[in-house]
Amino acid sequence: xxxxxxxxxxxxxxxxxxxxxxxxxxxxxxxxxxxxxxxxxxxxxxxxxxxxxxxxxxxxxxxxxxxxxxxxxxxxxxxxxxxxxxxxxxxxxxxxxxxxxxxxxxxxxxxxxxxxxxxxxxxxxxxxxxxxxxxxxxxxxxxxxxxxxxxxxxxxxxxxxxxxxxxxxxxxxxxxxxxxxxxxxxxxxxxxxxxxxxxxxxxxxxxxxxxxxxxxxxxxxxxxxxxxxxxxxxxxxxxxxxxxxxxxxxxxxxxxxxxxxxxxxxxxxxxxxxxxxxxxxxxxxxxxxxxxxxxxxxxxxxxxxxxxxxxxxxxxxxxxxxxxxxxxxxxxxxxxxxx
Length: 339
Known about the structure:
single chain, mainly beta, Jelly Rolls, 9-stranded antiparallel β-sheet, 6-stranded antiparallel β-sheet, 10% helix, 36% strand, disordered C terminus
């Protein structure tokens, strides 16, 4: 009998812009007196990134890394999904708490990575969980902003005028493909799904002066002018089946995100179709039951990896149980995101 779904020990990252809402809103056991900006929920990064691999927190493999089990139980764990070039799990799952603005930044695209193998492509999506009144997300450059404009405004308040500011509305999903200038605004808590990379090129840090900037590297990745990647198809209507409602939030060549809500108390059979899934529990309560295995509670802040080979498991939830279902799509599919 194979083990149940896997849960992991969170990896907390101290950030100058971090806060305490990961504890207050999601129940994370944050260390005292530290500003935590990120909780890495599922990570399997390259050897070059210290502390970038998740430790299993339940079942017979408790205390071992995801990478170890991935190589021992590849078919059961990820089925027909492909590993990264370094042999790792193809997603990085996080929560981000921005008490202050994140740096204005960009991540490398495929062209940059081909010429700079030490960098790793990074495309990501944010699902807004909570936001203070007036909070925004900075997503892309305004039409007409040139490289010369950006160079002139870096390090000055004028940088704000170059960025597209979008109100941060809880429930909204924002896709940020590589090459997109962006920043998470102060007062916003998000779930983040991304390709497994930690390569970030900072352009401006809102007056903070103690961190390195990477302007030239960023300029080599930025897409100036209209970005057609943000003109995806409209989101399809929600689908109601039994006690659940499913909403498609984003579909990319790297990952798909759906939001699933229990409209009433009920049971849901877990069917993986030969591919792994990641569940991020946002609200409500419930449990997962797998034959002969201890139950796994479903509570806000819990992240769970559903192995491709899991069989005979069900989720029971109360009305209002809500989670993000993250899956790996076929590589030919396109992109859609709500704003």
